Structures are given as C-alpha cells and as structure tokens.
Amino acid sequence: MRLVFMGTPDFAVPALRALVSAGHEVVGVFTQPDRPAGRGKNLKPSPVKVAAEELGLPVFQPERIKTSEGIQQLQALAPDSIIVVAYGQILSREILQLPSRGCINVHASLLPAYRGAAPIHWAVMRGETHTGVTTMLMDDGLDTGDMLLKQEILISNDATTGEIHDELASLGGKLLIETLNELEMGSLIATPQTGTSNYAPLLKREHEYLDWSRRAIELHHQIRGLNPWPGAFATFRGENLKIWRSAPVLQTDKYLETDAFSKTATFYPGQILQVLEDSLLVQTGDGVLRILEVQPAGKRAMSARDFFNGRHGQVGEKLG
To answer: Up-side HSE of residue 184: CA atoms within 13 Å toward CB?
Structure first.
C-alpha cells in the first residue's frame, strides 16, 4: 500500500520500521521540526526523523501541517492511506479526507479509555491492571474515530510507564501491519466507540508533586507512572528530590512488627519512620511506603538510604 507516515517520538519508530519491513511503500514521513535540546540548545531531530533517514525515506517537517504548503505536499504524494502515530499535530478535515483509505491512527490505550496525549502515563498512575493498543480510523474528534483492531496487555503492580511504553510501541507496530493486511483483504470492519471514556491530558508540574496525605498505593502508582519522565518529586529540608522507585508496605510485611511501629504512636504523612538496608519507610495518609531510589537535583540517581545517610538524616524527619 502507498502510505504517508506521520509520527515524532520514540513510540512511533517501531510502527515506521514495521511498515518498511512489511513491504509497504512509504512515500513520505512527516515529523515535527528539529527542536533545541540539551544545555547547548542545539537543534535535535525527532526519533522518527532519525529512523526515516536511516531507512532512506523522504522527510517533511512543516511547522504546521494544516497550511496550504503541507496539504500540497500530501496531495503530491497521493497516499492510499496516512498512518499517524503520536505525530503531535491536529489534522484538518481536508487532510483526513485526502487518502482513499482514510487516516489510520495507532493509539496507546484500549479506546474509548484514555483518549488524549498521555494515555500510558495516566493508565499507570491510576493503577490500571490492563491497557493496550487500538488502531482506528481518524475523524474530527480527539481519538474518537471508529476502531479497527485492539490488543490488550497486563500492567503489573511494579511496571513503570517506560516499560509499558516500550511494550506497547512494539505491539503497535505489529497491530498496524495486521490492520493494513485485513484492510487490503476487505475483511476489516470499523466499530464505533461505545462505553465509558476518559481523558489523558498532557502532564503538568502539579501532577509530579507527591502529596503524602494520599494512600500509599496511590503514591506508588504515581511514582512508577512518572518513571522515566518527568519523574515524581518531593522535598527534603527544602531540597527538591525525584522519587524513582517505591513499593507499598503490606500489613503482613515484617517491617511492621518492629518497635518503630508502636500502635500507640502518632505518625504524620511524609514522616520517615525507619531506615532499612535498601530503603526508607515513609508514613502516608493511609499506609506505609518504601522509598527505594531517589535523585537529588543536579545529582545522579541513588538508593534512598544512601541519600538519607549522606544528608545525616534523622528518623522522624519529614518529606514535603
């Protein structure tokens, strides 16, 4: 099939490679313009651009795809279908109607759940046990088009967004090829989205802050949901501290059998209760959370115990 591919981040790269490996004719790759990155603010190409150039594919980087120039470029390429995977720009109705077989999107959720820009982050942060990939025909709405194929995966209680991202990126490439195969055979039936939907908005600074009055399990989901980017954070003695790894303490855990957890004592959310060989135990609004790995501002990631000892921390101090 003659295709135009639109994508930008790492998540889109396996889908692009899968199209080429399957023998589809990718006549153009559209991706976001190079952006300043790093301390030197040098222009950096998107992961999709790097992959496209490696594969010898023509690359287009319009600042806005909906301009007359962008539309003319697409018309000249005359694709049978446009494949969109985390492109980062909204397509106009004129573009959506341009290819004869429509525009197909690969979305990292089981639609209609988690429409929007950050479906993997929010699925993990909300403690979902399942997620997946959906291919769909794009329409004017935000991830509201008719669904083509779905595939589901499990989310373990310790999985990070980074781990789920990589699994879904690979799965998305495979499901895209299956979708195009069935589309070419005429055996694919598009299904309208039904049932409860929710939205996965772009992450803001407020989503990164750890509120210790919340339940331990909710904080654990937030920490792993923000790993590896942008990272959950707390404060210690006024210093910002990224929290990368944690584990909720269960009522059956041996830590709760020690003298440090007197049933008559009063503990406060954020209070450091005990220093273990590999972690810190911190009181939350409901339950105790083990903090395993942290990263002070401007420093490397380290075990929570090493950080605490390096600051000559005292049991009873609080994380903010």
So the answer is: 12
Q: The domain containing residue 82 runs over which residues?
A: 2-200
Q: Residue 315 domain-assigned?
A: no
H-type alpha helices, the chain: 13-21, 47-54, 68-77, 93-96, 119-125, 161-185, 205-208, 216-225, 304-310
Block means of pLDDT (10 residues each) for the chain, 320 residues, are 98 98 98 89 95 98 94 96 97 96 98 97 98 97 97 97 98 98 94 95 96 97 98 96 94 58 71 92 95 96 96 94
CA dist 195 and 238 (Å) reads 45
Q: What are phi and psi of 5, to 5 degrees?
A: -110, 135
CATH number at residue 269: 3.10.25.10
Same domain, 9 and 143: yes
Closest CA to 102 of 22, 180, 7, 172: 180
Q: Are 88 and 116 in contact (CB under 8 A)?
A: no
Alpha-carbon span 194 to 203, nearest angstrom:
26
Alpha-carbon separation of residue 16 from 50, 114, 179, 193 (angstroms): 11, 23, 14, 26
Domain count, the chain: 2
Q: Strands, DSSP E only, in 19-166?
A: 25-30, 35-37, 42-44, 59-60, 81-85, 103-107, 115-116, 130-137, 147-154
Average pLDDT across the chain, whole number: 94
pTM over 0.90: yes
Asked whether residue 320 is domain-assigned, the answer is: no
Q: What is the pLDDT of residue 173?
A: 98
Final residue belonging to a domain, choices 200, 232, 264: 200
Q: Which of residues 200, 231, 250 is at a domain's end?
A: 200
Both structure tokens of 156: 């373990």
